[in-house]
Amino acid sequence: MPVNTKTYWRVLGETGLPTELNFSDPVAIIGHEIFWLYPTLETEGGFSEYVYYGPTILPIEVTLAPGDTMADMTAVLGICSDICVPAQAWFSLALIDPAPDRANGLRLRQAMVIAPMGWDRDPQPIGNVVFDARTSMLKVQVDDPELDQALLIAATATRLPLFSAPQKSPESNLVLFPVLGDVGETDLATQPVQPIFRTDMGVFAIDLSVKVTPAQLESAQGERPARPCLRGQSRIFRTHVERGKVLPLGGHIHRAYRDMIERGSPLLPVPTKLVDANGFSDTTSDAVLGQGLVVLFTVPGALP
Questions:
Q1: Is the previous residue joined to 123 through a cis bond, with omega within 30 degrees of 0?
Q2: Closest among 191, 108, 208, 112 to 152, alpha carbons compared
Q3: How much is the pLDDT for 176?
Q4: pLDDT tens digits for 68-126?
Q5: 165 and 14 in contact (C-beta within 8 Å)?
Q6: Beta-strand (E) ranges in 166-270?
Q7: What pLDDT digit, counting tens, does each position of 26-77 carry?
Q8: For the chain, where are the alpha helices, taking DSSP H only?
Q9: Up-side HSE of residue 128: CA atoms within 13 Å toward CB?
Q10: Nearest Cα to 112, choosing from 51, 38, 40, 62?
Q11: HSE (CB half, 13 Å, CA atoms) of 18?
């Protein structure tokens, strides 16, 4: 890709298109694992996205069916520069090479340098991980003073919930990750969180259980705590208004709305909050058509 073009990590962020690989025809590859390299966390425009820019290599380890001589793969990736589009590519590879492909072998070895590895030594650089339901923050204790906290990433195997960029805490060894969206969709008490971090020795990842105190559990199961911002609330749909059509930022439509609103649908004439440098202001959707403005508006009847 050109240096100003990006594609997405396994956790997309608030916008983006997922990477999809299909090895099904013919069935020469019966299993595969993508080694997702350490991404760039981008927060331009107020949205959190995990991306790769420019020339990118994603190593893939495959399990081959006995006796097959060719392997085919179809890949669909979200590619973004000025706009985001799904890009499709088809690859065919001979499974028996007369000579090693040394050039691509070198590229793969270089890429694997920034593929996260497990941490198998003491002391542990990351301590306790706590979810604070009252503030909707994930608190990660960093025990290694040499670790660059600004480069720390938090994710789960299920990709939900989504964590925003790390924030500093009054406590020097504590990093705060705002939880975006409805945390009720995924119970953090029952799945590990994976802090991913860079060191002079490479990139590492650790699976850690999330500690939730009884008071936090009561808050999470009772009345939903107030959110620090509008992002992720259930009845809010974020869109880019252009030519009277709904064009979701990054081309991604949240699953809660996918059945009722699609790309290119006529924009609903609904009350709208305009977001600009001065904050939020009340307007209507038809008043901002064609201006390329980012707005927040409710979808009537979207959710109870």
A1: yes
A2: 208
A3: 96
A4: 888 888 999 999 988 888 999 998 888 877 788 899 999 999 999 999 999 999 999 99
A5: no
A6: 167-168, 174-180, 194-199, 202-205, 210-211, 236-242, 245-247
A7: 678 888 899 999 999 998 777 889 999 999 999 999 888 888 888 888 999 9
A8: 102-112, 214-221
A9: 8
A10: 38
A11: 7
CA–CA distances in Å: residue 129 to residues 65, 207, 272: 41, 10, 38
CB 69 within 8 A of CB 46: no
Per DSSP, the three-state class of 103 is: helix
State which fold the 126-221 domain adopts: Immunoglobulin-like (2.60.40)
* Tokens matching residue 158: 């299920």
The token pair at 258 is 């996918």
Query: What's 173's DSSP letter?
Result: T
Instruction: Cite the residue boundaries of each domain of the chain with CATH code 2.60.40.
Output: 126-221
